[in-house]
Prior knowledge:
Chain A has 2 domains: 3-108, CATH 2.40.50.140; 129-429, 2-Layer Sandwich (BirA Bifunctional Protein, domain 2), CATH 3.30.930. In chain A, 32% of the residues lie in helices and 28% in strands. By secondary structure, the first copy, chain A, is α+β, with helices and mostly antiparallel strands. In chain A, 51% of the residues are buried. In chain A, the strands form 4 sheets. Chain A has an 8-stranded mixed β-sheet with strand order 7-11-12-19-18-17-14-13. In chain A, α5 packs across α13 (413-421). Chains A and B meet through β2, α4, α5, β7 and β8 of A and β2, α4, α5, β7 and β8 of B. Chains A, B: Homodimer. Chains A, B: ATP binds at residues 219-221, 227-229, 364, 412-415. Chains A, B: Its EC number is 6.1.1.12. Chains A, B: It is found in: Cytoplasm.
Amino acid sequence: MKRMNSEERQLVGKISLSSESNHESHDEVTVMGWIHRIRKLKSVTFLILRDRSGLLQCILTPEQTEQHNLTLESVVQLQGRCVPSKNDYGQIELIARSVKILSQAMPELPIQINGASLEVQLDTQLEHRVLALRHPKEQAIFKIQAAIGDAFRSFLKEQDFTEIHTPKLVKEGAEGGSNVFKLDYFGETAYLAQSPQFYKQMMVIAGMERVFEVGSVFRAEAHSTSRHLNEYVSLDLEMGFIEHEDELMSLETELLKYIFQELSKNYKKELELLEAALPDVPSDIPKLKLEEAIVILKTQYGKTELEGDLDPEGEKLISNHIFKETGSDFLFLTHYPQRKRPMYTMPCGEEETHSFDLIFRGVEITTGGRRIHDYQTLVSAMQRKGLDPEMYRSYLEAFKYGAPPHGGLAIGLERLTALLLGFSNIRRTSLFPRDGQRLMP
Amino acid sequence: MKRMNSEERQLVGKISLSSESNHESHDEVTVMGWIHRIRKLKSVTFLILRDRSGLLQCILTPEQTEQHNLTLESVVQLQGRCVPSKNDYGQIELIARSVKILSQAMPELPIQINGASLEVQLDTQLEHRVLALRHPKEQAIFKIQAAIGDAFRSFLKEQDFTEIHTPKLVKEGAEGGSNVFKLDYFGETAYLAQSPQFYKQMMVIAGMERVFEVGSVFRAEAHSTSRHLNEYVSLDLEMGFIEHEDELMSLETELLKYIFQELSKNYKKELELLEAALPDVPSDIPKLKLEEAIVILKTQYGKTELEGDLDPEGEKLISNHIFKETGSDFLFLTHYPQRKRPMYTMPCGEEETHSFDLIFRGVEITTGGRRIHDYQTLVSAMQRKGLDPEMYRSYLEAFKYGAPPHGGLAIGLERLTALLLGFSNIRRTSLFPRDGQRLMP
């Protein structure tokens, strides 16, 4: 007997619509899925079955209904005939001949998932994440997230980048600062990588020239905000033989264009369901020196306390300002001061650096820039930051034997997804967010 | 001025070969790369430049040579004309007009990387990993590894699987056993995920039905072997609505076929360089019950101490046995006993399970099988293993509200790469291997 599932359902649907009268046996199908809705009338039961491909109306007799405990979200297997039907869920319906419960759901669901939206607090959703994710809107978020990661890789592969996997257990990976998780590694202290920064640079220097990584990174920041996670997926790239950070900004512009094109081509349904509007990526994303942005914020918005960096409110204001002036959802802020950037950042003049942030809809989604590639300059930069070069021995060794000029950037996958979909809380775009309160599920 | 790099070099090479006499200005190019070899003659210096695309012969005058400290592995920028030439490295050579050192390499290299192979111990290679990886053979390993990961994803996407990212910081992820890294997570004890097992199952149950993940996993095994790493990349998949583990074995067979086809199509050069022979994947990979394998090993090979599992020697012997009998590099061992499998494994009869290992060239590369999807059965299975269900509260919750029958498998990326390339030590296929002695670089 034919089993019907996903694409097959579409196929069987077509067969049943076109050839029902000729080949009745073709219409005998088996379908499996979750009970999404159920409506018991006197003479008939409407059971709406859900799987990853959508919903299907099934017709049961009162006897079939009584014989089973058909609770919402139970997984069932139905056998029967598909017949043409105009209903809310499609062009066919299944007349059940037999019903089998594969997994019985408890009668009381902690959250209702068959409404138009999940009408529960985010905390409750996250507590019952597996159930909450069954809602078609929640599924759509992670389809889109998977597509973003996929487009990131495809685009970079086309540009001859190589995918790498670098260690998350590190001794030297901590870039300084205290927001790092520590653990005992066979008697030594190890850290969880805050980023693949050192390792991606080392791979450029190791002759791969162009590398990217999609991997988990860890930040032990104790404060909880709506835009930070303690564990997230970083889309990292690093590129050798660049002459200016403009090349990185151009690359990111093309990359974002490509990602949104792919989404608009293949994920229309999901975007509509989430009422998300894809941004236009200008060929020339506006650029502002950080200092210029600070002056604008001070003179036009009365924001005076900024010093060498923007706070979240500053990012929002300058982003809106640029949107009003140019219509761009994106803004590159450039020339961050050395005192605010990590030691490996390439200096530009006495105070500034060859670095940038990308602001998208009011929030930073990328930090990038050129890196120091000269051994002595790097040692001096460490010393100026009060770091002991001996703590970075193996990273530094890479620069002793020929390191090309290079630079790179990183994009937080969850944050990009959240901003794209217009969510105010990044937890919505992490399957199992990790924050100060949450280590389960 | 045109910058030449990788594909561009090919292009410029062609222009220079075909149009040299007509458009002399086209031939003025800039190239950048590492000094791979250098041979100084009285009247001329041959400098062999290396970048990720290969090698290029460059001709310098004695004066140019003297003006610079042209140490091996220094990164240089050369400007000059490309002319046709028959040499060991290609069909063109560059007559340098100007030479600039971008990064000076120290004169003493800890390892020589311009020979036919790296003639140093693996330990020394790993100590100087960034330098060692510059050898074209080492580069080839990681090109192939990237391609394996990519093919894994492409194949599964075609089968309507969704990519997921699950947390590596977990509370419940430890499947039991002591080989788990612990850390302090804001006052709570967290573990590093040994696998995405629980989370990939939860995503199937959350309605995604078919999921995969390419991510880091962590095993705190103190013993060092040539086939284990303490951190590695796991290619994981999980699939709902299966009726038998045969479906998983068929899927893996097709998956492996696809991966090797992609390699054979696009990575001929790398495979030749590494003298690696791709295996044939039989459409029907031989299957043996574990108990049958143990009987064969006992009666035909005098191996008597095996009990419920194979040791590495047993895996090798039975793999060779099957290879001699059928010509297959692959072997599925099935029906592992319950006492040797994790609590979530679907039982088969009183003693056995619906599970399997895949042995490839004498080493296990996959463990897979059906999982228990019934809440009560799972609770009982935990109790039988002496585990407290309360420790798995959020994992268990997933099974309360309708869990489809499902199963999955995992492949270790480094191990698959090593076996494919015929390496006896898995450290060769990890960019920065983590073992009991190694947390740097």
